[in-house]
């Protein structure tokens, strides 16, 4: 079947307004013209799309399905318009990235630097978020791609391997753990912690390991900022488990020490997530392939 884009816009307006008259006003069309297009679409589909009532209209199951795909079509065409507008302005694309803190601190800046050497006219919007928020942003279309830890629930996203980071136990230099070459998670749980935010990928990871051990982490403070966690460790409030590359910058100024966390899961797999690879713009797909090759 061939569907008319104007008719799809009319149907979306009717579905959102739940009223033919309001939809007609929104589109600056006559009510009769709106009704005619809806009738033609129903005839083309072969099923009623709307149920008329005293207050306006409601969608039938077939109408709900048409609305879903009409919105998807509008989203794809909108993305095409945005990208083509960028080309006409001399810019080769615009990419929205949401990523967890450890990715932004450790890997992404240098990876984008290399990418921009080959594609210097691409623009980026980059936002720092906890793992679950990164996934939500991609699912809801607010980000073109997200980068997060593999153990974060991807909610149906397609993922590609990106990199690994290593988790370390962070303590003051004079702490008992600082005298050890490594420490197990079980042994570390005997100490009080500065814990990650409840929505973070680290919280999810630690919770899984606590359940396996049948033990609980004694958390005195929860914060989302790695710098704040480091300062609280330096103040003697508790110990923390953080990515190695993140904590390196704080070791000397805050007089901290890192000890190897002797667990196989301390080496985290990081992934790039998108809604569907086959629907990505060429610009975004090129970046995803570049990031997947860096690991």
UniProtKB/TrEMBL annotation:
It comes from the Bacteria. The keyword Transcription applies. Pfam families: HTH_1 (PF00126), LysR_substrate (PF03466). Residues 1-60 form the HTH lysR-type domain. Gene3D superfamilies: 3.40.190.290, Winged helix-like DNA-binding domain superfamily/Winged helix DNA-binding domain. GO terms for molecular function: DNA binding; DNA-binding transcription factor activity. Belongs to the LysR transcriptional regulatory family. PANTHER family: HTH-TYPE TRANSCRIPTIONAL REGULATOR YBHD, LYSR FAMILY TRANSCRIPTIONAL REGULATOR. This is GntR family transcriptional regulator. It comes from Pseudomonas matsuisoli. The lineage of its organism: Bacteria, Pseudomonadati, Pseudomonadota, Gammaproteobacteria, Pseudomonadales.
